[in-house]
Amino acid sequence: MVIEKAGMPPTARPRGKKGETVPTVPGIALAFDEVGKTFPGGVDALRGVSLTVADGEFVTVVGPSGSGKSTLLRIASGLARPSSGTVTVGPEAPGYVFQDPTLLPWRTVTGNVGLLAQLDGVPKKRRRELVAEAISLTGLEGFERHRPAALSGGMRMRVSLARALTVRPSLFLFDEPFGAVDEITRQRLGEQVQRLHARERFAGLFVTHSVVEAVWLASRVVVLSARPGRVIAQIDVPFAYPRPADLRFDAAFGDVARTVSAALRESFA
Ligand SMILES: Nc1ncnc2c1ncn2[C@@H]1O[C@H](COP(=O)(O)OP(=O)(O)OP(=O)(O)O)[C@@H](O)[C@H]1O
């Protein structure tokens, strides 16, 4: 189903039942075809972006600051509309996590994780099941009654991941979610995402400024040019999952990271 086409009037995003996967084009979770975005005032954020994410595929996006990475995710989620081109996604709401975990400080972990399901009107019993499962998947058991102020930055991010998991997304969008935590916590959160992906098999589109993180997580890395963002390289990452933490120090890993880095350097040119 084509949800956004330049010139179409804004429409409500169509949605399937929770947990149901309704692929738009069989095997494709997200497709951008020649997508451009010009903001009112004339900022050209994206130009002619074509990009496909297959069902269950995990793709990372790197590019200079201002190259339109967040805009790309906002368009993929239906929060923003393209100025040109076509975006094709399934009818379900995607999972979406941001750099800031945006938790409600007065709610407990359980209350925060259950927020989206509550806003969606999911019945209490089902909500409890979804929340318990998401808390277990993100390793937050024992912290259910804690409030955000009593959690570390990494744990707050896990609450944000858990909250997004309750929508049982077939497409998961990550907007540089681990930029604000220390290196080891960042690696552990990456391992968490990889375990979730292995179990839930969602398609992932993950924006990051870290080349190492981009290569370690993805089966393909997309490199955007400086503004207006265009896809200047797509680099396959050939390593099998699950990937050990120390794959990062492997010579073959270094070769892929070097290729991504070189493309990224060009993008700054
Ligand atoms: N609502 C808006 N109105 C006008 N300009 C915008 C709007 N949102 C983003 N922009 C501009 O579009 C360009 C792309 O922004 P975007 O946030 O998508 O880039 P980014 O690659 O995610 O950047 P960063 O890596 O710094 O987070 C920037 O120049 C930004 O200032």
Automatic annotation (TrEMBL):
Q: Where is this region: Disordered?
A: 1-21
Q: What is its EC number?
A: 3.6.3.-
A Pfam family hit: ABC_tran
The GO terms describing molecular function are:
ATP binding; ATP hydrolysis activity
**Signal sequence coordinates:** none
Q: Where is the ABC transporter domain?
A: 30-251
The coiled-coil regions, if any, are: none
Q: What is this protein called?
A: Putative ATP-binding protein BAB2_1147
